[in-house]
Design brief:
Elements lengths: L4 E12 L2 E13 L4 E5 L6 H9 L6 E10 L2 E2 L5 H10 L1 E4 L3 H4 L6 H12 L4 H14 L5 H4 L9 H12 L6 E5 L7 H18 L2 E5 L3 H7 L2 E6 L2 E7 H6 L4 H8 L6 E2 L6 E2 L28 H5 L5 E4 L2 E3 L2 H16 L1
Parallel strand pairs: 3-8, 3-9, 6-7, 7-8
Antiparallel strand pairs: 1-2, 1-4, 4-5, 9-10, 10-14, 11-12, 13-14
């Protein structure tokens, strides 16, 4: 089956006075219709820039230097800007991280949703506004007839996020990119937003890329996971495999640093939170070899000398780690000996 989205060796770079930043460096991923892919990693690892590259909305001096992004068999990077504008909103939509900065503060929310509808559908202004009201109701906003007349500042954070979802869903896209859709929302509202995205996904048989730093959200909402570090994908598999047996030390560190996974002191009985030592390397000055080598507690000489490629270590489970490859080779030797 041909994947709905197939990203091949995507490289997005920024030219700066200090040099070239490789924000997305050789990423390859695929996603089928109806699936949810969770992309996780620390801030600055390239998650958002990967989504913006798919949408061809790279800011400033950024540009896609290499790669292909196939959507429904068509390379998005080969399209004209006009053709890409047709794709955005209609076939591919994105929920941005900060709804307050993404919504126009001087336009009523109903007008903003109606504008998105009229851009891709041949309907009158009145029909578009009626559809806006209907969409607000579908995303769980009470009194939608009144709320379409509100300005963004009159809505709570959760309601603004629902407006963004209504706007994104206005043309029933095949692919939704959700960039930290629950940031700065309280836990109850977070759950409501995630449930809403899940319900809309099932209703429209839509594929979803869920960008987050919260592994709990990924465990609950995604079927596949890609772990990014310093612009690269370092591990990818289905959710069950990632959480049952993480192969990359960075993935293991992320899982162990969750509050729910914290350990207890043997004598005090108090919980303490595990952390990953060190900091993410500067994209201006990346280390030689594996980019995680300076923070890894299992590092070997080969890790500092060469950069590992993303390899299939187990069936359907890929990791860019020499240690994982070494363990696979040892396991194969033991199996042959038996």
């Amino acid at each position: 089956m041909q994947p709905l989205l197939d990203i091949k060796n995507l490289k997005t770079v920024f030219s700066t006075a200090k040099g070239v930043i490789k924000a997305v460096d050789g990423v390859s991923l695929s996603l089928n219709a109806g699936e949810t892919l969770g992309i996780v990693g620390e801030s600055g690892c390239g998650k958002t820039m990967l989504a913006l590259s798919v949408m061809r909305l790279i800011p400033g001096s950024g540009q896609i230097a290499e790669g292909q992004v196939f959507f429904d068999g068509q390379d998005l990077l080969s399209l004209s800007e006009e053709a890409m504008r047709e794709k955005r909103g209609r076939d591919i939509a994105m929920i941005f991280q900060e709804p307050m900065t993404s919504l126009n503060p001087v336009l009523r929310v109903g007008e903003q949703i109606a504008e998105a509808i009229r851009l891709h559908q041949h309907v009158s202004a009145k029909e578009a506004l009626t559809l806006s009201e209907k969409l607000l109701g579908e995303v769980g906003i009470a009194e939608p007839a009144r709320r379409v007349k509100d300005y963004p500042h009159q809505l709570s954070g959760g309601m603004r996020q629902r407006v963004m979802i209504a706007m994104a869903m206005s043309c029933h896209p095949q692919l939704l990119l959700a960039d930290e859709p629950t940031t700065a929302l309280d836990v109850t509202i977070q759950a409501q937003i995630l449930n809403l995205i899940s319900d809309l996904k099932e209703k429209n048989h839509m594929a979803v890329i869920l960008i987050t730093h919260d592994l709990g959200i990924v465990a609950e909402a995604a079927q596949k996971v890609a772990v990014m570090y310093a612009g690269k994908v370092v591990e990818t598999a289905n959710v069950e495999k990632i959480f049952a047996r993480p192969l990359h030390p960075y993935t293991l560190g992320l899982i162990e640093s969750r509050p729910s996974a914290c350990s207890y002191g043997e004598t005090s009985g108090e919980a303490y939170l595990k952390t990953i030592p060190g900091t993410v390397p500067s994209l201006y000055d990346l280390p030689s070899g594996c980019r995680f080598s300076a923070r890894c507690n299992r590092v070997e000489d080969v890790c500092r000398a060469s950069e590992p490629e993303l390899m299939e270590i187990e069936e359907g489970h890929f990791a860019a780690c020499f240690i994982a490859m070494k363990e696979k080779a040892r396991h194969c030797e033991q199996s042959e000996a038996i």
